[in-house]
User: What shape does this take?
Amino acid sequence: MWRNKAESVLTLLALSVAFALFGTMITLNAAYQRAIDDTRMDRLIVACAFDCGVIPLGYREQLTRIPHVTAVGGEMWIAGHEQDERHRITVMLVDQGMRSAWPELPMIAVDWQALDANPSGIFLTRTAAARRNVRVGDTVTVNGGPGATADGTGIYYFTVLGLIPDPAGSGAGSVGPRGDLETIVGNLRYQQNWGRPDEQNIVHIMRVAVDRPEHARAVCREIEARFTNATPALYCVPAREDAEETAEANIINSCLSSCTYC
Assistant: This one.
């Protein structure tokens, strides 16, 4: 060790980094597993099959008529930055169908009533509000870039209606609308009323509730079969399986990034 001090120091540093990354991966894996355990099999995620990005809101009526489907909700995301471009923010806009299609969203009846009465209102998880230092009644702005809004300014204005608990299994993924600590819930009518004309009556995904977990895969197959020749066609996956695939992909990406860094 003393004969080659530089090499010994580098070796010790490499070992330290390796153990640190190993510990990080164990923690990350445990966090993802908690998120997966809290995701239900009887909740389906329906999206465009060929990376078209959006699906017509009118599909909701057809989905509700499929056997074993109990509820359908629409979801759209507005992404941008706050005053500082480094502070990214995503608002998840949902319709009232989500009350039944995704009841695990930590909102109670009075929250849904307030959101329905205030199209420009939002609810933030307590963690998201603390990070942004906002309170009930404050205005949150999202800069989506030039042309993102109907008036051409690209700036969305939201009023904080209240705070909601951090979702179960949160904290396992990246900031965004997929059930993590940064969940910010808004009213889909905001986009329908004030968004660009070409972004009205569309959503990014639909969430579908089925009566029993064992019916999930069969309902997904039925949805894909019914919309095979539609424009756009649909892709369906049980939410639990989607969470497993997302977790696996993120863990692999984390490993590759760590290896690249080393």
